Amino acid sequence: MELGKHGRELRIKMPSQDEFLSWMYGHALGRLILKPLVSPAFSKLGGAVLDSGLSAPFIGPFIEKNGISMDECEETVFHSFNDFFKRKLQPEARPLCAEEGAFISPCDSRLSVYPIREDSHFLVKDTPYTVESLLKNKKLAERYAGGTLWLLRLCVDDYHRYIYPVTGRKSANIKIPGVFHTVNPVANDVYPIYKENTREFCLIKTEDCGTVLMMEVGAMLVGKIENRESGAAEVQRGEEKGNFAFGGSTILLLTEKGQVLPELRFTENTENGIETRVRLGEKIGEIL
């Protein structure tokens, strides 16, 4: 395990799963095999299997392999793997930071933060993106020029429910269809996954930090982004927004220029190519 300047767990030695994905995405034969696996049809089929009782025997080995604590869960009896994967934790397991002006993480994840240039370009692990390609909306992209992109990557052992990080008026959800690449960083080296994967976002108009854009990105075997509220609504900081079904996933936040300042440790670690582990409700920035 590698520790950063602030003593937090940052990076773990690449396991065999990552080595397999590196081969799949890094070689021509692997990419050929990959094509049907990232299709919506395959993801839907995989989701149906994991929703069925046939998948229940996988729960125990998964818990043991990933060292998941079941003491935090509200329930411990599950009828399918996805039933377990979408488990709800007791409220005290993920307390919200009560500090005034704290901008909080919407989920358990590995966090990276990226400055958005004035021309709306940004880099994720040396892969160039534009906010316009991410949102499929040029006018909306211009709103976040000079702001910050917060990339929160969930792994299979993370808690896969997520909350609203701010209080405000949310827009109706906007869905962008696509494929289902893994969100493992090895895929980003080959494909611009955040503008190819299926994703869904809304705008949250706040009183204290402008308009925050919150986007959920589906990933391999994650055919379901299950948001509780699809239409416009008043939402509260800490209110549950939704959950992902099985697999690794990502949440992206966009904040406008001069509205939220990331904590220095996240900026430094991202510049060094390191993701930082955070938990739902933890402070990750300061509302200006």
> What composes the largest sheet?
9 strands, antiparallel
Helix content: 10-25%
Number of domains in the coordinates? Answer: 1
**What's the alpha carbon Rg, rounded to whole Å?**
18 Å
Write a compact overview of the structure shown.
With 288 residues, this protein is an alpha+beta fold. Helices cover 24% and strands 28% of the residues.
Description:
With 288 residues, the chain is α+β, with helices and mostly antiparallel strands. It has one domain. Helices cover 24% and strands 28% of the residues. The protein is built from 9 helices and 19 strands. The strands form 5 sheets. Strands 4, 7, 9, 10, 11, 12, 14, 16 and 18 form a 9-stranded antiparallel sheet that branches. Helix 1 packs across helix 2. The radius of gyration is 18 Å and the shape is globular. It starts with a strand and ends with a strand. The N terminus is likely disordered.
In terms of topology, how is this protein built?
Blueprint: E1 2-3, E2 9-11, H1 16-26, H2 28-37, H3 40-51, H4 59-66, H5 81-85, E3 102-104, E4 109-115, E5 121-124, E6 127-130, H6 131-135, H7 138-143, E7 148-154, E8 161-163, E9 168-170, E10 174-176, H8 185-188, E11 199-205, E12 211-217, E13 225-227, E14 233-235, E15 240-244, E16 249-255, E17 260-262, H9 264-271, E18 276-278, E19 283-287
Helix pairs in contact: 1-2
